[in-house]
Amino acid sequence: MAELLIVGAGAAGLMAAGAARQRGHKVTVLEHTAKAGQKLLITGKGRCNVTNNCDEDTFLRQVRTNPRFLYSALYAFPPYKTMELFEQLGVELKTERGRRVFPVSDRAEDIRQALFRYAEGSKILLEEGAKELLVQDGRVVGVRTTKDRTLYADAVLIATGGVSYQVTGSTGDGYQLAKQVGHRIVPTVPSLCSMVSSDPDCARMMGLSLKNVTLTLYRDKKAVFQEMGEMLFTHFGISGPLTLMASSYVKDMNKYKWKAVVDLKPALDEEQLYKRVTADFTELAAKSVQGALVKLLPSSMQPVMVQRWGVNPATQANQITREQRRTLVHLMKHWEIPLSRRGDLAHAVITSGGVDVKQVDPKTMQSKLCPGLFFAGEVLDLDAYTGGYNLQIAWSTAQAVAAHFDEC
Fold first, then answer.
1. 350-355 and 26-31 strand pairing
2. pLDDT digits (tens, 9 = 90+) for 17-51
3. 200 exposed, middle or buried (CB, 10 Å; 0-12, 13-18, 19+)?
C-alpha cells in the first residue's frame, strides 16, 4: 500500500482520492477551505455539467490548449467511463443539447456527494493547505502545511485548481508550490468569462436575462462563434451561458475588433418578423412606439430599443413607416454589442494558463523535474470550450495519477 497526499479537495482531487482508494492506497487530502468540492456546486449553473457524451476524437477538438497532451489520459478514462462511474455511484445521468451530461436531479450536490462516496476512507483535512513541498534527494516526499505540520507521503498530487472563482478556494496556491521545484507557469488569463463592453446600453439593461436568443461573435468581420441560448446584461457588459461560451473564442483583443451580435428573435426570419411587427403595430395603433413593443421585447429593453432605433418615443405606432419597421426588424435581428476586454479572472469559470505541460509526463501526470510530484485538473495549462469538457479534463488527469503514482 502506497500513500498519496493530495493538495486540493476539488473535482480533480476528490476523483484522484477515490481512484487511489479503489486501488487500495492510503490517501490524505488537504483542503485549505472549510468545505470540499465547493466549485462543483456552481458548475452548470448549480446543475453540474459532468462531462460531454462524445467520443475521444470529438472531445479533443474541443480542447483549446494543449489537446495533444491529453491524448493518453483521455483515452484511458474517456467520457463514457465517467458516466459509468457516476451511475455506479448512484447518480442517474441525462444527456442534453450539445451532448452535455447532467445528473437527472439537476443537483450539483449529488455529484459532490458521489465523489465523497468514491473517496470513502480518505482522510480529508479541512482548513489546512500546503505551503511548502518537502524535497529530499531531488524527490518530493511530503509537504509542510499551513498549520506548520509536516506530512510525509510516497507521492504528492497538486490539484488546487486555477485562480478563477476564488471564493470557492481556487487561489493559485498550486502555482507557487510548482514554482518551488522549478516548474514554469504559463501566465493565467480568464476563460469562459463575462465580457466587458463600452456600450452604455448594457448598463441601462443591467439584470435583464434574454432566453432563446442567438449570439454570434465576430472577430473583425468574421463570425467565429454562434449559439442559441441565454445571456445576461450587466453593469459592465454581458454575461450568462452564451457569453461564457463565446468568450473562449476571444483572443488578441488588442489586435482585432470584437463584437457580439444578438438575434432577439431567432425563430423568425426577417420577413416573418416584419409581418409580426406590422400586425402588432396595427393592433396597437394608438399607442406610442414603445408601448407597441410590449409583445415583442422585455420592458427594460423597450426604451433602449426605441433610442437605438432613432424614432421619437412619442410617435404613435400607426405613424411608423414601412422603412422604419424594416429598420426595427434589422435591429431586433442584429443587436450589436462592442466588446473591449474579458471580465475579471476572479469570476471566470475556467483559468487558461497554469503549469507548463511540457514539464509533465502526459501518461502519468508526474513532474519531469521532480519525481514524486503529480498534477491534475485546472492547475495544468489545459482548458476547453464549455460543455462538460473541462470537468472531464479533471476526471481524466486525476485517474491517470491514481493509475500510475505508485510506479514513480
1. unpaired
2. 999 999 999 999 999 999 999 889 888 778 999 99
3. exposed
